[in-house]
Here is the input.
Amino acid sequence: MFTYLSLFTDHLRDRWRELHRDAEAGYSTETVVVTALLVALAIAVLAVLTVAVMNRATSIDLGA
Here is the structure.
């Protein structure tokens, strides 16, 4: 069991070093995450605006 744990930690350490050799290695992942957050924020804003417009539209009195 200890051997597997040791191999696993060595593998993780090697992968960590490999990923951090290049300073731009995580740039595309960061861009994707930021873009996804901006899209989620835009959807939330559209949802709030839709509710506000629908509430305003249903409050219009056409009978008078």
Remarks:
- DSSP finds two helices and no strands in the chain.
- The mean pLDDT is 86.
